[in-house]
Amino acid sequence: MSKRAVLFFHHIMNKNKKRALHDMAMNFKLSGWCKFGFPGVVVTVVQGESLGMHEYIRRIKAMRWQQVRVETIDDVDDDKSFGNHRSGLQEVEAISDITQALRPLGLEPWFRKAMGYAPK
Question: Where is the Small nuclear ribonucleoprotein Prp3 C-terminal domain (predicted)?
Answer without folding.
Answer: 6-72
